[in-house]
Amino acid sequence: MTEIRRLHSNKRMSQAVIHGDTVYLAGQVAQRAGGKPVADQTRDILSRIDELLAESGTDKTKLLSATIWLTDMGTFAEMNSVWDAWVAEGGQPGRACVEAKLAAPEYTVEIAVIAAR
Asked: Please, what is the average pLDDT of the chain?
């Protein structure tokens, strides 16, 4: 049976779940940049994703899938300018981006990824 490891867990959820050679990250919000512009929030989120992937034994070059939620699709280009500078050439994941209401008003972006190890 393949082991399942959970990182940074609480009663409700884990920030990362590792199953075999796959890493599933919870949706990340800008905990260090909440209330700031979308570009700043996106940079903060991608930095946290880098940290969680490294802790899980992988990195952004092995992304499989990404889901991005924006509170306003009018900020799509702003978010994409940061995403495009961050995503690894040759490591672009399958991706979806939708408009949605997020858990707290100070958050305007949320990103969840799945990666191989």
From this structure: 97
